[in-house]
């Protein structure tokens, strides 16, 4: 089955995604009878490109990395219109723009445009699920297309797939997790005696933290993930601005070292629970955890989430390392989900019957 | 959709399964358009019963718990033959007999009989996957029925579902985990200064350990789980007898306390890896872990597995408590998987589109 793709956003995640589907081309065909063809690329600063017969993506990546603009000047809306005219059996918009913490834009508009054009849409951007999950889910449902976002919260950890496919009949009644890599890296460094400013500078030099790290340090990234998880897993209707949020700062060093001295660990914990009034409350807080807590042992890039469930008690899932490949993989796994939702020819997926 | 069930085995797990599907009857109908009807029960010591119109299962449970025999004397083979004559759209054998570590029997024969009779089969018994996974998978595939076993290894943790449904294109290249509750309970107690014999006696009194605890203590249970995981996730063709196995004993107390004194923890670790010759090697060992290791923090009933993957690095999944309900749930989730593999009417599963 052929799927034509338009990439909206072509930064680190978008380019890694393009590389990954090339690397796994054989497996996609063998395991899922799926061929992916990238026909469009839209960037914020480097123009955009469209070729209904498939773009030379490696060349486009080299152009963008060299700071040159792509051929055509059309924006994302034009690309989506072009994609909607493809006669491939699957038409999928791959949205990888960066998070806007004010209102989740323009990612939400990209998702709406894709759905309204009858295209499936997968995104690694937290904005759409953190700000507008209910609307976009219903809009996609009405249009008969899929809106998926596995990469938005926990890189390669298939948290939404896990709940959707592997935990039928189970209600998530709360969660707590360590979900932001930059702050977790810095807290690990502070525990080792490093000062705040040099630890941050080192993370920025290593490309782990952004030049403007305030989204991470002030807890906004964790708050957006909290809202996304609460909206999807618990039926909350919140935005990141509804999350009660405290980040980390210069004062975190002494607290982190004091915690270690007492056998505990300081971690930036994101959590949600349902109050007696039925409303879901989201919280981001530097939290002192007992040394034996599953979340206490997470250092550096590791992240994990503990789901509180009605039927199974607490279930934990985490990854020991997160990176671009994990986020790009999440987009690929969403595309596989779209594929497996199509009526399958006899014999397909035989390898995965377990 | 109606599914007729025959329960082969009606011990603690089988009876909890029957209770759970009663408790979740509304959700099964609402979320999956699925109605379950238990028509047959076969026990080892208390006879068996069949009613094509559906048994009074609560009454059967009371009979068995009071030590009385069920009405009919037919064995499991007769039940499966009866089930195969049902005209319900789904016919499912629910196998919950206990593990036989010599050869996985008679569970393997039960699974074979179900498949050969054209019935789906779900089991919480490790034997079939630990001793005969390849044969049973191929047999089920040829017969066009499902053979599922989510409850065999990690109670409510959906480890097989996770890999099957949420990790497409990913290869598992190894794993390590804490998978046996009895030994983990005892090691936790030993760390707290309790002696081996009283700790074991306390576990037996609490119903956590069997009267004959040797399967747990000698590492056989962990070895069976290692073989099951390696066979399914890594394509190994091993049995529990191929696993290099050391259990715990009186000498574990001093080692556990010495580990704690040095900031480490002693845990019974089950693992598998592929050697240079391509063969998968399984290992069960009391292992000293650094205090920060994800597996080190597991106490009591908690268990967890770290998967080593080719694409995503290490992924960890665990549960903080395991019990009968979790194992029974795994059987229900397997039945839901069988249901969702059927062509779905339009609109079904809408609640879970995420």
Question: Quick gist of this model?
Answer:
The structure is a homodimer of 354-residue chains. Helices cover 41% and strands 21% of the residues of chain A. Chain A has helices at residues 12-23, 25-32, 57-65, 76-84, 107-116, 126-143, 151-154, 159-166, 181-191, 196-205, 214-217, 220-234, 252-261, 324-340, and strands spanning 2-8, 35-42, 48-50, 90-95, 120-123, 147-148, 172-178, 244-245, 264-274, 280-290, 303-309, 313-319.
Describe the secondary-structure layout.
The structure is a homodimer of 354-residue chains.
Chain A: E1 2-8, H1 12-23, H2 25-32, E2 35-42, E3 48-50, H3 57-65, H4 76-84, E4 90-95, H5 107-116, E5 120-123, H6 126-143, E6 147-148, H7 151-154, H8 159-166, E7 172-178, H9 181-191, H10 196-205, H11 214-217, H12 220-234, E8 244-245, H13 252-261, E9 264-274, E10 280-290, E11 303-309, E12 313-319, H14 324-340
Helix pairs in contact in A: 1-14, 5-6, 6-12, 9-10, 9-13
């Amino acid at each position: 089955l052929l799927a034509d793709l338009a990439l909206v956003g072509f930064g680190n995640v978008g380019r890694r995604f393009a590389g990954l589907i090339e690397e796994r081309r054989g497996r996609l065909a063998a395991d899922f009878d799926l061929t992916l063809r990238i026909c469009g690329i839209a960037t914020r600063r480097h123009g955009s490109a469209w070729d209904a017969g498939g773009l030379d993506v490696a060349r486009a990546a080299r152009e963008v990395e060299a700071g040159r603009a792509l051929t055509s000047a059309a924006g994302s809306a034009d690309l989506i219109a072009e994609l909607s005219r493809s006669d491939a059996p699957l038409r999928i918009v791959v949205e990888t723009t960066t998070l806007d913490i004010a209102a989740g834009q323009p990612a939400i508009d990209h998702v709406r445009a894709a759905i309204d054009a009858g295209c499936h849409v997968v995104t690694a951007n937290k904005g759409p699920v953190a700000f507008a999950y209910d609307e976009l889910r219903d809009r996609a449902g009405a249009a008969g297309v899929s809106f998926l976002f596995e990469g938005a919260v926990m890189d390669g950890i298939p948290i939404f797939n896990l709940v959707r496919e592997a935990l039928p009949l189970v209600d998530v009644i709360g969660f707590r997790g360590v979900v932001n890599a930059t702050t977790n890296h810095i807290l690990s460094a502070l525990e080792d005696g490093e000062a705040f400013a040099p630890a941050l500078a080192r993370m920025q030099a290593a490309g782990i933290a952004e030049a403007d790290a305030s989204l991470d340090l002030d807890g906004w990234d964790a708050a957006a993930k909290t809202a996304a998880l609460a909206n999807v897993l618990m039926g909350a209707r919140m935005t990141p601005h509804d999350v009660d949020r405290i980040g980390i700062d210069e004062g975190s060093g002494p607290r982190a070292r004091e915690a270690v001295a007492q056998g505990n660990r300081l971690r930036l914990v994101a959590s949600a629970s349902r109050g007696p009034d039925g409303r879901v409350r989201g919280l981001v807080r530097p939290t002192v955890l007992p040394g034996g807590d599953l979340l206490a042992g997470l250092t550096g890039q590791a992240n994990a989430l503990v789901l509180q469930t009605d039927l199974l008690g607490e279930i934990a899932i985490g990854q020991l390392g997160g990176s671009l490949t994990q986020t790009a993989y999440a987009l690929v796994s969403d595309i596989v989900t779209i594929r497996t939702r199509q009526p399958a020819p006899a014999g397909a997926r035989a390898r995965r019957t377990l």
